[in-house]
């Protein structure tokens, strides 16, 4: 997902036939999401990957307290990689899909992207 910085301004008309224009720095930053749902429809906490070296407190305003327990992490380019996929698996998927009966199996289906495959798993 690409987003524009807060200093951008959309100039347009209420007439749908007219085009809108974006004025501003138009700098973009990548943010990726790891989403999962169980076969019973239970939504797992998503993984949010910001471009950067470390998480910044100002990214998390008070209005977003309801999403404070999501799994946040950074990467050099804002995309997932093997390290992030393994961390999300250990910190989110495995604890939230723990079966009551330890002999029950779990199945995870991935989209086949190389960054989701690791020999560490």
Describe how the helices and strands are arranged:
Layout: E1 2-4, E2 9-11, E3 21-23, E4 28-34, E5 47-51, E6 71-75, H1 82-96
Parallel strand pairs: 5-6
Antiparallel strand pairs: 1-4, 2-3, 4-5
The run of helices and strands is: EEEEEEH
* SS field, number of helical segments: 1
* Rg of Cα set: 19 Å
Average of pLDDT: 77
Q: Strand share of the residues?
A: 15-25%
Distance between the termini: 27 Å
Side by side, the strands of the main sheet go 1-4-5-6
Number of domains: 1
**Approximate helicity band:** 10-25%
Low-confidence runs? none
Largest sheet: 4 strands, mixed
Domain DDE-1: 28-119
GO molecular function: nucleic acid binding
Protein name: DDE-1 domain-containing protein
Organism: Gibberella nygamai
Defining traits:
two-stranded antiparallel sheet, 121 residues, single chain, 6 strands, nucleic acid binding, DDE_SF_endonuclease_dom, DDE-1 domain-containing protein, four-stranded mixed β-sheet, alpha+beta, 1 helix
What this model shows, in words?
This protein has 121 residues and is an alpha+beta fold. It has one domain. The protein is built from one helix and six strands, in the order ββββββα. It has one helix at residues 82-96, and strands spanning 2-4, 9-11, 21-23, 28-34, 47-51, 71-75. A four-stranded mixed sheet has the order 1-4-5-6, with helices on one face. A two-stranded antiparallel ribbon has the order 2-3. The longest helix is centred in the C-terminal third of the chain and has 15 residues, at 82-96. The mean pLDDT is 77.
């Amino acid at each position: 997902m690409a987003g524009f910085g807060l200093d951008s301004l959309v100039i347009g008309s209420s007439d749908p036939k007219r085009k809108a224009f974006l004025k501003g720095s138009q700098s973009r930053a990548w943010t990726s999401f790891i989403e999962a749902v169980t076969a019973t429809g239970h939504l797992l906490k998503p993984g949010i990957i910001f471009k950067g070296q470390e998480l910044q407190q100002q990214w998390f305003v008070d209005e977003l307290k309801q999403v404070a327990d999501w799994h946040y992490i950074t990467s050099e380019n804002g995309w997932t990689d093997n390290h992030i996929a393994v961390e999300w698996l250990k910190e989110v998927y495995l604890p939230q899909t723990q079966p009551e009966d330890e002999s029950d199996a779990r199945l995870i289906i991935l989209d086949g992207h190389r960054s989701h495959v690791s020999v560490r798993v």
